[in-house]
Structures are given as structure tokens and as C-alpha cells.
Amino acid sequence: MKTALPLARPSLQPLPWIKIGASRHKDGTVVITAPPVRRRCGGCTECCTTIPVGEIGKPENTPCEFLRTFTRDHGCSVYSGRPDSCKIWSCLWVLDDTIAEEARPDRCHAVFDMMGDELTAVFNATGKVHTFTVIQLWINPNYPLAYREPAVRAVMLDIFNKTGMPTLVRRAGNDVLVAPPSATESEWREKQCSPTDRKIAEAL
Questions:
Q1: Cα separation, 141 vs 144, whole angstroms
Q2: What is the CA radius of gyration of the chain?
């Protein structure tokens, strides 16, 4: 059963390997089951700043109004009644225990989203249009170059080698599409991407 998730980005779907359950009650209500987690968040609250939450109007890269940071009860102050999107959502570090400890979001200041996104590449020479799925990586605004850190690049490289998906770095309206070096290049490839028109010129 396909159903839209109650997220700030309703058109997006989970990455292909993320298993989310959905069941329909007799009254027509659809209940969505969160994917199984492999780790606990512990003291990490990086997603509470970087990820947008539609139900409460929280934009990206803005600390949630319910986030407690300087108290003994560090974390969400409305955890039991938090928005549905927060209940369903997890970062890839929590879902995949093969990702290194160094890539825990509060240590690398970057959050790999379990939701993918789509970009459109327009090839200037031919006008051909190609739509493709990307990984979303949300960056703490205080660490705008966190996506270049070795622990983060290791995750991007692993996902790219397995799926061919590049990473869209979400960086406070200054998004960057990133891919590992190609067979003929030695440097990581980056291309600026507009967060509004969802298009880039050419491909990486």
C-alpha cells in the first residue's frame, strides 16, 4: 500500500531500502508503522534543529521550540505527544548499524535522511531532461562544510557505490549536489542546486 507520509515534504518517499509498514482500518484510517531501528539516539538531537516539521511549522535549520538543551531532561519536551512525522522518521545512522559511530549526527553535525528527494538535470547541448533520486543530507548551520568530513564522505561513498545515488546537501537554502570522484577524476564533484526549482544544469 502506497501512502503519503505526514512529513514537511509530502511528495517524497522513503529510500528504496527503508521498510515502512502501512495498514488500513475498517473506518478507512491508514496507520503507518515506523521502520525498525538498529540504534538509539542517546543524547543526539541534531535532527531537532536540521529537519523541517510540517505539523508545527518548523523550518529547516531552526531549533525546534520543544527542544530542551540546557536541562537535565535533554531532548524533546513533548516526546510522548510529538508530531506523527517525528514518530515515524529516523535518520540513517539509527536505522543502519553498519554506519560508523563517527557519523552519528551530533558528532559529525550532519543528518542523513531516510527520505529521498528527486532532482531534474537539464543537458544544455540536447535539452534532454533526466530525473533522478538523491540522498538528503541535512547540515547543522554552524558547520556548513560538515559534508566534507571523512566520516560523512564515507557514508556518501558507500551509498553511491551500492545505489548510484548522489547526495543532496541541505544547507540553509544553499543546497549542493555531491558525488564521489568519477573513474576519470580524483576530486569529489559538487554542483550548486536551487532549493526552489529543483533543477540543475547538466549532471555531475
A1: 6
A2: 17
Cα angle 167-138-67, degrees, rounded to a multiple of 5: 160
CB 39 within 8 A of CB 92: no
Please give the DSSP secondary-structure letter assigned to residue 13. Answer: -
Would you state the pLDDT for residue 130?
80
Which residue is associated with the grid cell 550532519? 110
Domain hosting residue 152, numbered range: 21-201
> Is residue 80 helix, strand or coil?
helix
Count of the separate structural domains present in the chain: 1
Domain-located, residue 2? no
Quick one: pLDDT at residue 8? Answer: 44
Average pLDDT over residues 164-189: 87
pLDDT (mean) for 55-64: 90
Domain presence at residue 45: yes
- What average pLDDT does this structure show over 11-40? 72
Burial of 14 per CB tally in 10 Å (0-12, 13-18, 19+): middle
* pTM summary value: 0.83
Q: Are 24 and 1 in contact (CB under 8 A)?
A: yes
Residue 108's Cβ-count burial label (10 Å; 0-12, 13-18, 19+) is buried
